[in-house]
Amino acid sequence: MIQVILCDDHALIRRGIRDTLADAPDIRVVGEAADYGELRALMRQLANGQDPVRQPPCDVLVLDINLPGRSGLDVMHVLKDEGSAIKVLVVSMYPEDQYAIRALRAGAYGYVNKGSDPQQIVQAVRTVAQGRKYVTPEIAQMLVESLSAPVTENAHDKLSDRELQTLVMIASGKRLSDIAEELSLSPKTVSVYRARVLEKLALQNNAELTVYAIRNGLVGG
């Protein structure tokens, strides 16, 4: 039996994934969390007092990237640094062409867009549980092209995970106060991230950030 933990800050999304996985006889959802804090507490609880690194509380962690506080990418970095045996499957609303490769580099075993066929998530969980990478044909094509294309780097590739997240949220029309609340950060911290993004991308204001994000496929036009 493949044991799964769901980590997404939207209860409705968690319910949809849970109901989808419930139809698979070989998969069982053993817990849910809305953010990093809840996830850590849940992992300790399921480990029954054992070290959750040595005694993984699940086989697969279905993880969203956009979480309040620590992002899903942050969570993966922590798990990787700890040497956790948990396999991470990212299920996100973010575009595959910008976030899938970043997630895989952070340690994810697979990436599925939330708009995909629900059965794709079932297949992805099974594949990841076996220790194999799960990528869609679109991501596979991106990987092939990245190997054969000349080595070039987009300006936003230099951004940290949190800086990229801030860029996307600003370009999506969210105010700094809204971003701060959603990410459980102070408005001052978000302002610092925004300033770093502007500097690294050589941009002047939010309007230019939005144009950049649209032109580079980070958000829809």
UniProtKB/TrEMBL annotation:
InterPro entries named in the record: CheY-like_superfamily, NreC/VraR/RcsB-like_REC, Sig_transdc_resp-reg_C-effctor, Sig_transdc_resp-reg_receiver, Tscrpt_reg_LuxR_C, WalR-like
Modified sites of kind 4-aspartylphosphate: D64
Domain HTH luxR-type: 152-217
Gene3D superfamilies: 3.40.50.2300
Residues annotated as domain Response regulatory: 3-129
Entry keywords, A to Z: DNA-binding, Phosphoprotein, Transcription, Transcription regulation, Two-component regulatory system
Top-rank taxon: Bacteria
Protein's recorded name: Response regulator transcription factor
